[in-house]
Amino acid sequence: MSSDTPALAEVLRANGLRVTAQRQLVLDAVTTLGHATAEQVHESICDRVAGVNITTVYRTLDLLESLGLVGHTHLSHGAPVYHLAGDRGQVHLVCHRCGAVDEVSPEVFGDVRRSLEEQRGFLLDVGHVALFGICSSCEMANQ
Amino acid sequence: MSSDTPALAEVLRANGLRVTAQRQLVLDAVTTLGHATAEQVHESICDRVAGVNITTVYRTLDLLESLGLVGHTHLSHGAPVYHLAGDRGQVHLVCHRCGAVDEVSPEVFGDVRRSLEEQRGFLLDVGHVALFGICSSCEMANQ
DNA sequence: ATATATGCAAAGGCTTTGCACCTAG
DNA sequence: CTAGGTGCAAAGCCTTTGCATATAT
Protein backbone atom coordinates (compact mmCIF):
# COMPACT_ATOMS: atom_id res chain seq x y z
CA MET A 1 0.00 0.00 0.00
CA SER A 2 1.42 3.33 -1.02
CA SER A 3 -0.86 4.81 -3.66
CA ASP A 4 -3.94 4.81 -1.45
CA THR A 5 -4.09 8.55 -0.89
CA PRO A 6 -3.51 11.48 -3.20
CA ALA A 7 0.25 11.74 -3.06
CA LEU A 8 1.24 12.43 0.51
CA ALA A 9 4.77 12.97 -0.73
CA GLU A 10 3.68 15.75 -3.03
CA VAL A 11 1.68 17.52 -0.36
CA LEU A 12 4.65 17.35 1.99
CA ARG A 13 7.11 18.62 -0.58
CA ALA A 14 4.75 21.38 -1.63
CA ASN A 15 4.87 22.59 1.96
CA GLY A 16 8.61 22.28 2.34
CA LEU A 17 8.24 19.29 4.65
CA ARG A 18 10.17 16.08 4.54
CA VAL A 19 8.87 12.78 3.29
CA THR A 20 9.49 10.20 5.99
CA ALA A 21 8.52 6.59 6.48
CA GLN A 22 6.67 7.49 9.66
CA ARG A 23 4.42 9.97 7.92
CA GLN A 24 3.49 7.47 5.28
CA LEU A 25 2.87 4.77 7.86
CA VAL A 26 0.60 7.01 9.90
CA LEU A 27 -1.44 8.03 6.89
CA ASP A 28 -1.66 4.42 5.72
CA ALA A 29 -2.83 3.34 9.15
CA VAL A 30 -5.55 6.00 9.27
CA THR A 31 -6.62 4.96 5.79
CA THR A 32 -6.77 1.29 6.70
CA LEU A 33 -8.43 1.72 10.08
CA GLY A 34 -11.09 4.17 8.99
CA HIS A 35 -11.47 5.72 12.43
CA ALA A 36 -8.86 5.22 15.06
CA THR A 37 -7.34 6.81 18.12
CA ALA A 38 -3.70 7.79 18.15
CA GLU A 39 -2.98 4.72 20.19
CA GLN A 40 -4.75 2.46 17.71
CA VAL A 41 -2.84 4.04 14.86
CA HIS A 42 0.34 3.39 16.79
CA GLU A 43 -0.54 -0.24 17.41
CA SER A 44 -1.47 -0.75 13.80
CA ILE A 45 1.89 0.62 12.70
CA CYS A 46 3.73 -1.56 15.20
CA ASP A 47 2.11 -4.61 13.63
CA ARG A 48 4.00 -3.80 10.47
CA VAL A 49 7.15 -2.08 11.60
CA ALA A 50 8.92 -1.88 14.94
CA GLY A 51 10.22 1.22 16.62
CA VAL A 52 7.81 3.97 15.66
CA ASN A 53 7.21 6.12 18.70
CA ILE A 54 3.76 7.14 19.87
CA THR A 55 5.00 10.70 20.22
CA THR A 56 5.70 10.73 16.53
CA VAL A 57 2.23 9.40 15.85
CA TYR A 58 0.72 12.30 17.78
CA ARG A 59 2.93 14.82 16.03
CA THR A 60 2.24 13.31 12.65
CA LEU A 61 -1.51 13.20 13.14
CA ASP A 62 -1.41 16.89 14.04
CA LEU A 63 0.67 17.59 10.99
CA LEU A 64 -1.55 15.61 8.64
CA GLU A 65 -4.54 17.37 10.10
CA SER A 66 -3.03 20.79 9.53
CA LEU A 67 -2.31 19.73 5.96
CA GLY A 68 -5.96 18.85 5.57
CA LEU A 69 -5.32 15.17 4.97
CA VAL A 70 -6.94 13.83 8.11
CA GLY A 71 -9.49 15.05 10.61
CA HIS A 72 -10.57 14.01 14.05
CA THR A 73 -13.76 13.60 16.05
CA HIS A 74 -14.48 13.36 19.73
CA LEU A 75 -16.74 10.40 20.18
CA SER A 76 -16.96 10.34 23.93
CA HIS A 77 -14.93 10.89 27.07
CA GLY A 78 -11.89 9.14 25.73
CA ALA A 79 -9.37 9.83 23.04
CA PRO A 80 -10.32 11.54 19.79
CA VAL A 81 -10.64 9.46 16.68
CA TYR A 82 -8.81 10.25 13.45
CA HIS A 83 -10.06 9.61 9.94
CA LEU A 84 -9.22 10.61 6.39
CA ALA A 85 -10.39 14.10 5.60
CA GLY A 86 -11.34 12.94 2.12
CA ASP A 87 -14.06 10.75 3.59
CA ARG A 88 -16.78 13.31 3.18
CA GLY A 89 -17.06 13.02 6.95
CA GLN A 90 -19.14 10.27 8.34
CA VAL A 91 -21.30 11.48 11.15
CA HIS A 92 -20.92 9.41 14.28
CA LEU A 93 -23.82 8.35 16.45
CA VAL A 94 -22.65 7.45 19.91
CA CYS A 95 -24.91 5.63 22.33
CA HIS A 96 -24.67 6.92 25.84
CA ARG A 97 -25.77 3.73 27.38
CA CYS A 98 -23.80 1.04 25.59
CA GLY A 99 -21.14 3.14 23.89
CA ALA A 100 -21.88 1.73 20.45
CA VAL A 101 -20.81 3.89 17.53
CA ASP A 102 -22.89 3.95 14.38
CA GLU A 103 -22.45 6.16 11.35
CA VAL A 104 -24.79 8.06 9.12
CA SER A 105 -24.33 10.02 5.98
CA PRO A 106 -23.51 13.69 6.40
CA GLU A 107 -26.51 14.38 4.22
CA VAL A 108 -28.80 14.31 7.24
CA PHE A 109 -27.13 17.60 8.08
CA GLY A 110 -28.01 19.33 4.85
CA ASP A 111 -30.64 21.60 6.40
CA VAL A 112 -28.76 22.24 9.61
CA ARG A 113 -25.76 23.22 7.61
CA ARG A 114 -27.71 25.65 5.53
CA SER A 115 -29.45 27.26 8.51
CA LEU A 116 -26.24 27.69 10.46
CA GLU A 117 -24.53 29.23 7.49
CA GLU A 118 -27.37 31.62 6.81
CA GLN A 119 -28.19 32.52 10.40
CA ARG A 120 -24.74 32.60 11.92
CA GLY A 121 -22.21 32.46 9.15
CA PHE A 122 -20.99 29.28 10.79
CA LEU A 123 -19.39 26.80 8.41
CA LEU A 124 -20.24 23.41 9.81
CA ASP A 125 -17.55 20.78 9.54
CA VAL A 126 -19.53 17.57 9.41
CA GLY A 127 -16.45 15.42 9.69
CA HIS A 128 -16.13 16.56 13.24
CA VAL A 129 -19.65 15.89 14.32
CA ALA A 130 -20.48 13.31 16.91
CA LEU A 131 -24.06 12.95 18.00
CA PHE A 132 -24.97 11.46 21.33
CA GLY A 133 -28.15 9.69 22.24
CA ILE A 134 -29.68 6.30 22.84
CA CYS A 135 -29.39 3.64 20.17
CA SER A 136 -32.30 1.50 19.10
CA SER A 137 -31.09 -1.61 20.92
CA CYS A 138 -30.77 0.18 24.22
CA GLU A 139 -34.08 1.88 23.68
CA MET A 140 -35.84 -1.44 23.19
CA ALA A 141 -34.00 -3.10 26.03
CA ASN A 142 -34.79 -0.33 28.45
CA GLN A 143 -38.42 0.44 27.87
CA MET B 1 -30.29 30.37 46.29
CA SER B 2 -31.80 27.07 47.22
CA SER B 3 -35.10 26.75 45.38
CA ASP B 4 -33.56 27.14 41.94
CA THR B 5 -33.93 23.53 40.87
CA PRO B 6 -36.70 21.04 41.39
CA ALA B 7 -35.88 19.86 44.86
CA LEU B 8 -32.47 18.29 44.79
CA ALA B 9 -33.09 17.08 48.32
CA GLU B 10 -36.16 15.17 47.25
CA VAL B 11 -34.45 13.52 44.34
CA LEU B 12 -31.60 12.47 46.59
CA ARG B 13 -33.85 11.08 49.27
CA ALA B 14 -36.01 9.30 46.73
CA ASN B 15 -32.86 7.44 45.69
CA GLY B 16 -31.70 6.67 49.19
CA LEU B 17 -28.86 9.17 48.91
CA ARG B 18 -27.83 11.75 51.46
CA VAL B 19 -28.43 15.45 51.23
CA THR B 20 -25.12 17.21 51.71
CA ALA B 21 -23.97 20.79 51.46
CA GLN B 22 -21.50 19.83 48.71
CA ARG B 23 -24.20 18.40 46.50
CA GLN B 24 -26.30 21.51 46.81
CA LEU B 25 -23.31 23.73 46.16
CA VAL B 26 -22.38 21.83 43.02
CA LEU B 27 -25.89 21.97 41.64
CA ASP B 28 -26.16 25.66 42.48
CA ALA B 29 -22.87 26.35 40.74
CA VAL B 30 -23.94 24.52 37.58
CA THR B 31 -27.20 26.45 37.66
CA THR B 32 -25.47 29.78 38.05
CA LEU B 33 -22.70 29.17 35.56
CA GLY B 34 -24.82 27.76 32.78
CA HIS B 35 -22.03 25.73 31.25
CA ALA B 36 -18.89 25.02 33.14
CA THR B 37 -16.08 22.55 33.48
CA ALA B 38 -15.58 20.64 36.70
CA GLU B 39 -12.76 23.00 37.54
CA GLN B 40 -14.90 26.07 36.96
CA VAL B 41 -17.61 24.61 39.15
CA HIS B 42 -15.00 24.04 41.80
CA GLU B 43 -13.71 27.58 41.58
CA SER B 44 -17.19 28.99 41.73
CA ILE B 45 -17.90 27.02 44.89
CA CYS B 46 -14.63 28.13 46.46
CA ASP B 47 -15.71 31.73 45.98
CA ARG B 48 -18.54 31.05 48.40
CA VAL B 49 -17.26 28.37 50.72
CA ALA B 50 -13.79 27.10 51.51
CA GLY B 51 -12.67 23.52 51.65
CA VAL B 52 -14.73 21.74 49.03
CA ASN B 53 -12.48 19.31 47.25
CA ILE B 54 -12.31 19.02 43.48
CA THR B 55 -12.58 15.26 43.80
CA THR B 56 -15.96 15.73 45.38
CA VAL B 57 -16.97 18.02 42.55
CA TYR B 58 -16.14 15.31 40.02
CA ARG B 59 -17.96 12.67 42.02
CA THR B 60 -20.95 14.92 42.53
CA LEU B 61 -21.20 15.91 38.88
CA ASP B 62 -21.23 12.23 37.96
CA LEU B 63 -23.88 11.59 40.55
CA LEU B 64 -26.07 14.49 39.45
CA GLU B 65 -25.72 13.33 35.90
CA SER B 66 -26.78 9.80 36.73
CA LEU B 67 -29.77 11.29 38.53
CA GLY B 68 -30.66 13.15 35.37
CA LEU B 69 -30.20 16.58 36.91
CA VAL B 70 -27.22 17.68 34.87
CA GLY B 71 -25.66 16.72 31.58
CA HIS B 72 -22.35 17.32 29.90
CA THR B 73 -20.99 18.16 26.49
CA HIS B 74 -17.56 17.87 24.94
CA LEU B 75 -16.83 21.18 23.34
CA SER B 76 -13.31 20.53 22.19
CA HIS B 77 -10.10 18.83 23.19
CA GLY B 78 -10.31 20.00 26.75
CA ALA B 79 -12.54 19.24 29.67
CA PRO B 80 -16.23 18.51 29.23
CA VAL B 81 -18.74 21.16 30.17
CA TYR B 82 -21.64 20.54 32.53
CA HIS B 83 -25.06 22.13 32.37
CA LEU B 84 -28.51 21.65 33.83
CA ALA B 85 -30.34 18.80 32.18
CA GLY B 86 -33.54 20.81 32.30
CA ASP B 87 -32.10 23.36 29.88
CA ARG B 88 -33.68 21.98 26.78
CA GLY B 89 -30.11 21.52 25.60
CA GLN B 90 -28.36 24.41 23.99
CA VAL B 91 -26.43 23.27 20.99
CA HIS B 92 -22.84 24.43 21.05
CA LEU B 93 -21.00 25.74 18.03
CA VAL B 94 -17.28 25.47 18.49
CA CYS B 95 -14.87 27.26 16.16
CA HIS B 96 -11.87 25.18 15.28
CA ARG B 97 -9.73 28.12 14.56
CA CYS B 98 -10.33 30.51 17.44
CA GLY B 99 -12.06 28.22 19.91
CA ALA B 100 -15.04 30.51 20.33
CA VAL B 101 -18.21 28.85 21.57
CA ASP B 102 -21.57 30.04 20.36
CA GLU B 103 -24.95 28.53 21.03
CA VAL B 104 -28.01 27.90 18.94
CA SER B 105 -31.43 26.61 19.72
CA PRO B 106 -31.89 22.87 19.55
CA GLU B 107 -34.67 23.53 17.12
CA VAL B 108 -32.25 23.57 14.22
CA PHE B 109 -32.06 19.86 14.87
CA GLY B 110 -35.72 19.17 14.41
CA ASP B 111 -35.34 17.46 11.06
CA VAL B 112 -32.16 15.63 11.92
CA ARG B 113 -33.79 14.31 15.02
CA ARG B 114 -36.77 13.04 13.11
CA SER B 115 -34.69 11.38 10.40
CA LEU B 116 -32.42 9.66 12.86
CA GLU B 117 -35.34 8.37 14.84
CA GLU B 118 -37.14 7.09 11.77
CA GLN B 119 -34.14 5.69 9.94
CA ARG B 120 -32.11 4.32 12.82
CA GLY B 121 -34.26 4.33 15.92
CA PHE B 122 -31.63 6.63 17.40
CA LEU B 123 -32.92 9.02 20.06
CA LEU B 124 -30.81 12.11 19.68
CA ASP B 125 -29.85 13.89 22.87
CA VAL B 126 -29.41 17.46 21.73
CA GLY B 127 -28.03 18.56 25.07
CA HIS B 128 -24.90 16.63 24.29
CA VAL B 129 -24.35 17.99 20.85
CA ALA B 130 -21.36 20.08 19.99
CA LEU B 131 -20.86 21.16 16.41
CA PHE B 132 -17.46 22.06 15.07
CA GLY B 133 -16.67 24.36 12.23
CA ILE B 134 -15.43 27.81 11.38
CA CYS B 135 -17.14 30.83 12.89
CA SER B 136 -18.05 33.87 10.84
CA SER B 137 -15.25 36.03 12.26
CA CYS B 138 -12.58 33.51 11.36
CA GLU B 139 -14.16 32.94 8.01
CA MET B 140 -13.97 36.63 7.15
CA ALA B 141 -10.49 37.03 8.58
CA ASN B 142 -9.13 34.10 6.68
CA GLN B 143 -10.50 34.45 3.20
C1' DA C 1 25.79 20.41 5.44
C1' DT C 2 21.96 21.62 7.94
C1' DA C 3 17.40 22.31 8.94
C1' DT C 4 13.98 19.17 10.08
C1' DA C 5 12.12 14.80 12.25
C1' DT C 6 12.45 11.41 15.46
C1' DG C 7 12.98 8.97 19.94
C1' DC C 8 13.20 8.99 24.64
C1' DA C 9 12.12 10.49 29.08
C1' DA C 10 9.94 13.57 31.75
C1' DA C 11 6.25 16.61 32.77
C1' DG C 12 1.57 18.28 31.95
C1' DG C 13 -3.51 18.46 32.22
C1' DC C 14 -7.73 16.20 33.61
C1' DT C 15 -9.79 12.58 36.12
C1' DT C 16 -10.20 8.45 39.06
C1' DT C 17 -9.05 5.49 42.94
C1' DG C 18 -7.82 3.88 47.76
C1' DC C 19 -8.13 4.62 52.25
C1' DA C 20 -9.02 6.89 56.67
C1' DC C 21 -12.08 10.08 58.70
C1' DC C 22 -16.44 12.29 59.08
C1' DT C 23 -21.50 12.98 58.98
C1' DA C 24 -26.46 12.52 57.55
C1' DG C 25 -29.96 9.37 58.54
C1' DC D 1 -24.94 3.69 65.34
C1' DT D 2 -23.49 2.83 60.56
C1' DA D 3 -23.88 3.16 55.64
C1' DG D 4 -22.58 6.47 52.80
C1' DG D 5 -19.89 10.78 51.69
C1' DT D 6 -15.78 13.51 51.86
C1' DG D 7 -10.86 14.86 51.75
C1' DC D 8 -6.35 13.90 50.79
C1' DA D 9 -2.70 11.95 48.31
C1' DA D 10 -1.36 9.09 44.90
C1' DA D 11 -1.89 7.00 40.55
C1' DG D 12 -4.11 6.81 35.93
C1' DC D 13 -4.86 8.00 31.26
C1' DC D 14 -3.88 10.76 27.18
C1' DT D 15 -0.98 14.11 25.39
C1' DT D 16 2.77 17.55 24.98
C1' DT D 17 7.47 19.24 25.59
C1' DG D 18 12.72 19.46 25.85
C1' DC D 19 16.67 17.93 24.28
C1' DA D 20 20.01 14.93 22.01
C1' DT D 21 20.37 12.03 17.98
C1' DA D 22 19.42 10.78 13.34
C1' DT D 23 18.06 11.75 8.56
C1' DA D 24 15.93 13.88 4.24
C1' DT D 25 17.16 17.24 1.21
From TrEMBL, chains A, B:
Its cofactor is Zn(2+). The keyword DNA-binding applies. It comes from Stackebrandtia endophytica. GO terms for biological process: negative regulation of DNA-templated transcription; regulation of secondary metabolite biosynthetic process. CDD domains: Fur_like. Pfam families: FUR. This is Fur family nickel uptake regulator. It comes from the Bacteria. Binds 1 zinc ion per subunit. The keyword Cell inner membrane does not apply. Belongs to the Fur family. Zn(2+) binds at C95, C98, C135, C138. GO terms for molecular function: DNA-binding transcription factor activity; transcription cis-regulatory region binding; zinc ion binding. Keywords: DNA-binding, Metal-binding, Repressor, Transcription, Transcription regulation, Zinc.
